[in-house]
Amino acid sequence: MSNKNEGLSLLYRFRWRLTWLLLHVAGPASLPDHLDPRSRMERERAAKVARAQRARQEKEAGRL
Q: Where do Basic and acidic residues bias regions lie (predicted)?
């Protein structure tokens, strides 16, 4: 599994991409980064992946 998808289920990735595309086509025109829903989704996804990577690293460190 690639690092950008670590900890994300197939269903989550499908729903995320569909929502992101719908917001791209029918969402707000142009907003500052802190108000843009697509940017918020990207930040939340990155945080979720980072948590999964951190958990995997802690699990691997516990085995050593």
A: 33-47, 55-64
pLDDT digits (tens, 9 = 90+) for 21-39: 999 999 888 889 899 999 9
The structure tokens 């990577």 sit at 53
Please give the residue range of the domain that contains residue 41. Answer: 3-63
Measure the CA–CA gap between 53 and 27, rounded to whole angstroms: 31
Q: DSSP letter at 17? A: H
Q: Which pTM was predicted?
A: 0.80
Half-sphere exposure of 18 (CA within 13 A, CB side): 6
Give me Rg for the CA atoms of the chain: 15
Tell me how many domains the chain contains. Answer: 1
